[in-house]
Write a structure and sequence with these properties.
282 residues; alpha+beta; Deoxyribonuclease I, Chain A; six-stranded mixed beta sheet; 5 helices; 30% strand; globular
Length: 282
């Protein structure tokens, strides 16, 4: 099976082989050495500005793509659904874990679906930052990995500086909890064209050791190319793979991130204590 290389860009991925090993485990808790038993797990995240989720989940091509990618997390922006519509949406083997829906219009929005085998919980201290057009955020904690996954949509006609302030607050709250951050979405800031807004966003990311690993255009028209969809990480040292996929029903390319995450098994850990007496220290 193929090994992951740091940041591989594939616009037409070959699906004849698996990208990486699905699971690797090793027993590290034993009497012969330090605690080991760290499991390696693939986080496979698909983000797409889907421009209306309604009816597209019935599309055979989309479901085959999700199956071929073996994605275990689906993040959508611009789903265009009301909350009552979102609550009855069904994706086989996935559960809806977080959503942002507009109540006054039928556009925008963000949501996160997870494979039903993953342990997650919605985090209200981030979802409460949500604001129509400015910061349409869905967020969930990956309980076993100490990681927060956030999906954000920002409308191009919204207040950029209000967005930047909310993003700074989100980053601070995540890091104050000692968590890693994976942030995807459509921020409507073009990373291929220098501007004051882009520079301020990059400054915020740099200050927090965050990197956008998407390097190619994500929205291509007959006249323009722009990179407005992002996958932002606080740790790019681990092996990972990033792909760009034309799903065929939006003018945005989808982004697929595959990265190795490590988790410690649940259960007691070995601890050591020091015993003090009047005569000596043991």
């Amino acid at each position: 099976m193929d090994e992951l290389n740091p940041i591989i860009e594939l616009s037409h991925p070959n699906r004849d082989k698996e990208l990486v090993n699905n699971f690797e485990t090793c027993d590290l808790y034993n009497n012969e050495g330090p605690a080991k038993n760290i499991r390696e797990f693939e986080l496979r995240i698909l983000h797409h500005n889907i421009q209306s989720l309604n009816n597209k989940l019935l599309d055979r091509k989309m479901m085959l793509t999700i199956d071929n990618l073996n994605a275990n997390m689906l993040c959508f922006t611009e789903h265009w659904l009301r909350e009552d519509q979102m609550n009855v949406l069904n994706i086989d083997q996935f559960i809806l874990v977080s959503k942002f829906c507009r109540s006054s219009s039928a556009s925008g929005g963000s949501c996160i679906f997870m494979k039903n085998t993953l342990q997650t919980k919605e985090i209200n201290y981030l979802s409460s930052l949500g604001s129509v057009k400015v910061f349409e955020v869905s967020a969930v904690e990956l309980s076993d990995f100490g990681t927060i996954l956030a999906c954000i949509y920002r409308s191009p006609d919204s207040d950029f500086y209000e967005f930047l302030c909310k993003l700074e607050t989100l980053i601070a709250r995540v890091f104050s909890k000692g968590k890693h951050l994976i942030l995807c979405g459509d921020l409507n800031v073009n990373f291929l064209q220098h501007s004051g807004k882009l520079q301020e966003l990059l400054n915020l990311l740099t200050m927090n050791n965050l990197t956008n690993v998407v390097k190619s255009p994500t929205r291509i028209t007959s006249h323009t190319k722009s990179l407005i969809d992002v996958v932002i990480l606080d740790n790019t040292n681990d092996d990972m793979l990033i792909e760009y996929l034309d799903m065929g029903y939006s003018d945005h390319l989808a982004q697929f991130l595959c990265m190795i995450a490590k988790k410690l098994p649940k259960g007691p850990l070995r601890t050591y204590t020091r015993h003090f007496t009047d005569n000596k220290v043991e």
